[in-house]
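Dear colleague,

Thank you for sharing your sequence with our group. We've completed the structure prediction you requested, and as agreed, I am returning the results in plain text so they can be pasted directly into your records. Please verify that the sequence below matches your submission; if there's any discrepancy, let me know and we will rerun it promptly.
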Amino acid sequence: MGYFGALYNAPFMEALAAAGLCDFHKADDPADTDWMARLPGYTCHYAARSWQSFDGFKPFTKGIIAARCGAIVLVDRNPEAVTALGTDYPFYIDDPSLAGIRTTVERARSGFGSTSWETARGAMRRLAASVSEDAVAAAILSLSRHAGR
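Please find the predicted structure tokens below.
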């Protein structure tokens, strides 16, 4: 499992790294893009977030990136994730404590290849298709036609 983002936003980073449960990659410096090459090396991306006082709407970019890489994602049940993945996604982190996150990690780890895993992969494939180049181009064309009326 890999995390890509601002490390201060990754809950329980030290404990998860020490337990060998997640690799953490700093990805908040526009001049440093080395982390991008590591993205496809993970079948699971960690997208839990320590919400900050300045956070407002947060698009589900970690989920979109994981989906485009063919990975599943472990994420809290926030509105953007639920909109993208549906209410029945099997790997939501419903308990944001360290114990709850470890339980979700273990559920994903032991569920590799299971029905739950395939359900998650299906949700991620649908998300990836919804943000494909063709889907984005079609949305832009639709908007431009609508705006031109």
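Summary note from our side: The CA atoms of residues 10 and 49 lie 5 Å apart.

Kind regards,
the structure core
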